[in-house]
UniProtKB/TrEMBL annotation:
Name of protein: ATP-dependent DNA helicase RecG
Family statement: Belongs to the helicase family. RecG subfamily.
SMART domains associated with the record: DEXDc (SM00487), HELICc (SM00490)
Helicase ATP-binding domain residues: 259-424
Reactions listed under catalytic activity: Couples ATP hydrolysis with the unwinding of duplex DNA by translocating in the 3'-5' direction; ATP + H2O = ADP + phosphate + H(+)
Native organism: Sphaerotilus hippei
């Protein structure tokens, strides 16, 4: 039970069936249709063991309308003894068309007395473990519901009329665990039944309350007031920028600057499509913190992305006298010790790196602002560790999270409800639209010909493969083989190789060569997914594109089209395509809008997978569906402040009931 997380009576009550079996009626054998599950009852006419093609037990069962064969490939002697010829058997299973007539393979079967009563409710089937039989779990759930009836926590009169008609939570749970005979199984399984609506609404309300509580707790914390100084670093940085900020960039900079100037910790998500210019906004925020005499930390999920940030920020800020430190897992020994010393003394005003920035031996002198790029790619535990490190100071630093995966409205209202969101919804001028082409693998030669043309014009090309070692199961070409093949195909042009298992120094050297234009084609795995900025790259070829997620494909596509050159993204796929793979490639071909991509990704994958590491492996929403239940979400969003303000105890109990030990993850 503990393995399933069923430690409290309420956990058992909320452990709802994944499906139901209808044992409330009998179907005459002649009327049981092939392909459907039916429950039949009849006398055993014959019981025999056959040895070919393998040992199996065959029971022929008949009623007044006809007969059927029950076939068992695994069985025990006591089962045979219980069902001798002449016994009355009741069996339930899928009817199939066999060589000798209709049959059921491995049905549920038992001997019964004449006129044995049928079940009066649908039989629940629960997700369980091998050590926990269904019968035991059914008894445990029924006992929990009887032992500790679920208390109604919603005050009367709080719900709008449309929801006030729904059953109480106790009645809804009793119904869902033991639906009466003749209940529509379809309404139960598509979760449209009023009992399901009641459950989903309370779950959404608890989730909204928990986010609101987290937001209010954060509001009570204190942070340093960070304001830029006249003629200071922030002003000088704006003065040397070689381009004008877009209107959207100016707007979000103003929102972030206003937050930094308050004594309440900023907790803001900066979202913007690929190439919208989030890095310069982050740099401007950092200059405000440094102007005020505080340090800034910028954390990225991969060394390649962290190094891209480091080089760009060094290029922008070092001439202005800013001390920048670089911390990653590959930096060891004396070099690391020197960097840590610079961070601790405050000499390093800006610290850039991977998760190494939050390791135990790193201590900041005065950390005023923490920036997390591609925040959804950090695990919950890592984000909690960052918050603990920040909390070790007298004042809580401001927190800015960045994401190139736009957050659809329903997700913003649920998983990110405690965040302020700034959106860069405008691309910098001069960017050319990227054309996306989808080709079957059989047209590879056409793609190679196009790449030849681009290299001939002095352009550069990314060629992305999904794995770096042979996988017979997936039949994917590995990066090393592809590199050898393309090096021969595109000679004398230089073809580079980049993958996650290369040493950091080697990766950096290859990227430097590509950035400098000395490599024409870069064969790479998804280590180049984010942050790589080479304006001369005009073609992105993605092999086995059907294997990639939609957000990942969009990120990869964003590596081209970063200059004034017309760019193409080619998606090569291998047949047969799954329906999900087809939907992804269709979405990529139809739109380059990151917000539309995010919406479709949510439709295809659902919130749990879309969010990746936002959860700790457990979805915070178990029953509600963000696409189907937007009305319930809107009502929950509206009611949460009223419940928390006027019925604080009920609100607290509601959150404890639904979230239990997951409260900590909401802080991340």
């Amino acid at each position: 039970m503990d393995k399933l997380g069923l430690t409290r009576d309420i956990d058992l009550a909320l452990h709802l069936p994944i499906r139901y079996e209808d044992e409330t009626r009998l179907t005459p054998i002649a009327q049981a249709r092939e392909g459907e599950v039916a429950q039949i009852e009849g006398r055993v006419l014959a019981s025999r063991i056959e040895l070919r093609p393998r040992r199996q037990w065959l029971l022929t069962v008949a009623d007044d309308s006809g007969q059927i064969v029950l076939r068992f490939l695994n069985f025990y002697p006591n089962q045979q003894k219980a069902l001798p010829e002449g016994a009355l058997a009741r069996a339930r299973g899928e009817v199939r068309g066999g060589f000798w007539g209709r049959e059921m393979v491995h049905p549920q079967v038992r001997a019964v007395q004449a006129d044995a009563p049928l079940a009066t409710a649908l039989t629940p089937v629960y997700s369980t473990s091998a050590q926990l039989p269904q019968a035991y779990l059914r008894k445990a759930v029924a006992a929990a519901l009887w032992r500790a009836p679920v208390q109604e926590l919603l005050p009367p009169g709080l719900l709008p009329r449309e929801l006030a008609r729904l059953p109480s939570l106790q009645d809804a749970l009793q119904f869902l665990h033991h639906p009466p005979a003749r209940t529509s199984v379809a309404a139960l399984e598509d979760r449209s039944h009023p009992a399901w609506q009641r459950l989903k609404f309370e779950e959404l309300l608890a989730q909204q309350l928990s986010q609101l509580q987290a937001q209010r707790q954060r509001a009570r914390l204190r942070a340093p007031v960070l304001r830029a100084v006249d003629g200071g670093l922030s002003e000088r940085f704006r003065g040397v920028l070689p381009f004008e900020l877009t209107g959207a960039q100016q707007r979000v900079v103003a929102e972030i600057t206003a937050d930094l100037g308050r004594s309440q910790p900023m907790h803001r998500l900066l979202q913007g499509d690929v190439g919208s210019g989030k890095t310069v906004v982050a740099a401007l925020a950092a200059t405000v913190a440094m102007d005020a005499g505080w340090q800034c930390a910028l954390m990225a999920p991969t060394e390649i992305l962290a190094e891209q940030h480091f080089r760009k920020l060094l290029q922008w800020l070092e001439p202005l006298g800013v001390g920048v430190a670089w911390l990653t897992g590959s930096r060891k020994g004396k070099a690391r010790a020197q960097m840590i010393e610079r961070v601790a003394s405050g000499e390093a005003q800006l610290v850039v790196g991977t998760h190494a920035v939050i390791q135990g031996d790193v201590q900041f002198a005065r950390l005023g602002l923490a920036i997390i790029d591609e925040q959804h790619r950090f695990g919950v535990a890592q984000r909690l560790e960052l918050r603990r490190k920040l909390a070790s100071q007298a004042l809580e630093p401001h927190l800015l999270m960045m994401s190139a995966t736009p957050i659809p409205r329903t997700l913003a209202m649920t998983y990110f409800a405690d965040l302020e969101v700034s959106t860069i919804d405008e691309l910098p001028p001069g960017r050319t639209p990227i054309v996306t082409r989808v080709f079957a693998d059989g047209r590879r030669e056409d793609v190679i010909e196009r790449v030849h043309e681009e290299i001939g014009k002095g352009r550069q090309v990314y060629w992305v493969v999904p794995l770096i070692e042979e996988s017979e199961a997936l039949d994917l070409q590995n990066a090393t083989e592809t590199h050898a093949l393309l090096a021969e195909t595109f000679a004398p042009a230089a073809v580079g190789l980049l993958h996650g298992r290369m040493p950091a120094a080697e990766k950096a050297a290859v990227m430097a060569e590509f950035t400098a234009g000395r490599i024409g084609v870069l064969v790479a795995t998804t280590v180049i997914e984010v942050g790589v900025d080479v304006p001369n790259a005009s073609v992105m070829v993605i092999e086995h594109a059907e294997r990639f997620g939609l957000a990942q494909l969009h990120q990869l596509r964003g590596r081209v089209g970063r200059g004034a050159v017309a760019s193409v993204c080619v998606l090569l796929y291998t047949s047969p395509l799954s329906s999900t793979g087809r939907e992804r490639l269709k979405a990529m071909a139809e739109t380059t809008d990151g917000f539309e991509i995010a919406r479709r990704d949510l439709d295809i994958r659902g919130p749990g997978e879309f969010m990746g590491a936002r959860q700790s492996g457990d979805a915070l929403l178990r029953f509600a569906d963000l696409q189907e239940d937007t009305r319930l979400l809107d009502v929950a969003h509206e009611l949460a402040p009223r419940l928390l303000d006027h019925h604080a105890r009920a609100a607290q109990d509601l959150v404890a009931r639904w979230l239990g030990g997951k409260m900590e993850f909401l802080k991340a």
